[in-house]
Amino acid sequence: MTHCHTTIQSLRRQGFRITPQREMIIETLTQSNAHLSAEEIHKRIKPRSKTINLATVYRTLDLLVEQGHATRLIGKEGKFLYATRQHSRHLHLVCRKCGRAYAASYDGLQPFLEQLKSTYGFQVEAEHVTLYGLCPHCIHPPNQ
Known about the structure:
Number of strands: 5
Low-confidence stretches: none
CATH class of the largest domain: Mainly Alpha
Oligomer: single chain
Shape: flat
Order of helices and strands: HHHHEEEEHEH
CATH topology of the largest domain: Arc Repressor Mutant, subunit A
Number of domains: 2
Structural class: alpha+beta
Number of helices: 6
């Protein structure tokens, strides 16, 4: 069963109605390998559905985040980007100059999180971590 169908079934079991628009939004998000903004999702769906509007996309994304099926991170200029939780714990590296979001290995964070727990007694619940900085392209732009 695809991640899209798993998400839809889970929402139905929780009592949420799955409209054709919600299904297209979930499908678009789960089939993407990138983090998408609501506007990007809307743009991808618009050719298939003239009835889809941006407010519906935002409401569906909020629902997915609230129900634990998606994560939201802040990209360039404060724009929200969304991804599904199909890959469990993950780390994002977001360039504060160009806004690109990169997936990175979460493994290196584990020792740091364990140190926080042993030093401060604080257990971090970090399913989704976002770090901001500069990507290689923005640090060393190609010659113009």
